[in-house]
């Protein structure tokens, strides 16, 4: 395989139909009236994961896609780029038993691709009241797109302003191609456009259109501009050929401009975040013989996801901990990095031990290419023009995602300093609802009715209820083996002083069924009611299947 093919080979290829159905059959369909499935609780956008997996298993991928897009308008993109190992799959109850979690991300991709590839409608034709108010959204990244879609769903006129020619923000320009190149973002954008959102690309706010014009045009404005360029290291030799900023490197890579990279055999990556891991792993795919990541703290303090670090090691990436660069060496092109050993002292403002140099420990790491991935700088100048307050280096917002200026709301990386795509999507949704409440001038206008939850009840016949769901115990059959106790993911089961099974808090039961499956004596079982299958649009299962 040539390097170009390897660079664009996906880490998690799509599932075929039979593979998807088989994988979906592994799901235990957890979740009860009081305790949602752990995977749902771990999803920032709250996708009903057991529901869409069941719809795949039953041969209804269109319904599954609609379930996903109802909660996350970028559900196809997030299926590719979400750190599912840390979120939904990391919370899967199967891991409690040391088993492989359900491949939720790949199932989500299967369903969303199935619908988008067939140009099927994945959002309902909702008849929201058309509202006179107009909202401006600055930035067509994940937060801005989600905010625009949610506002359109609520009936507002929405215009998105984006300085680049393509939407997506870091999804388009800053996520390594082995995770996602560009698809399915165009189809998701078309879905948002069909909801009535207007897009204006190639428009820089503050240059092509003034803030005053925006404020005169729109009743509220959402700021989803993310972070800016890579933070410069400001050390000698940073100008040398072969020294790259991580985002510039990924953009060249993503758009196939491989001839401009010319890595050579030895690549040094500076940084300890997920972007550093991405560029290191892509450098291996580009054919570099030796790829070394330099990080000034230890592996334990590294902000990159542990599973990403382990995957990089398996692919041959080397790591040197407690090392900081002093200068880049070379005449016209970089040929090495002078470094110094570090040691950890008292914690700094981040709560991590502060690295400090050890005098006299300088050394040189040879390099043909250096990629700097130490983070992005906030676009503070932009917000200062608006008089919007910063706090701890990010835009200050309240619980409605409203900034210090009443008319302006914000979400995404500009308020958290850099997070995941799915977090940005949720910020956009919540900010849209905050804008709705602000324009409605009343809390009740946008608030959904408070759900009425059933009270958990234990009955004399050994049944513990959550609404119509119940967990039943026959203590006479229990031999006290504790297999059910050890398998329970929410730890609500225990053995009492007679070594008989007992329940401490039925409200936390997710009805996964592991206890029932593990009991050799049939002393414990669960009951979940059969409910009529009606999809999000009020259609019967057969009518909504699209098959």
Account of the 3D structure:
With 547 residues, this protein is an alpha/beta fold. The protein is built from 22 helices and 22 strands. Helix 2 (17-24) crosses helix 4, helix 4 (49-57) packs across helix 8 and helix 6 packs antiparallel against helix 8 (104-117). Mean pLDDT is 92; it is low at 531-547.
Main attributes?
single chain; 547 residues; alpha/beta; five-stranded parallel beta sheet; 22 helices; disordered C terminus
Structural class: alpha/beta
Strand order of the largest sheet: 3-2-1-4-16
State the shape. globular
What portion of residues belong to β-strands? 15-25%
The overall strand count is 22
The poorly predicted ranges are: 531-547
Supply the number of helical segments. 22
Biggest β-sheet, characterized?
5 strands, parallel
Q: What is the CA-CA span between the terminal residues?
A: 37 Å
In helices, the fraction of residues equals 25-40%
Give the radius of gyration: 26 Å
Roughly what is the average pLDDT, rounded to an integer?
92
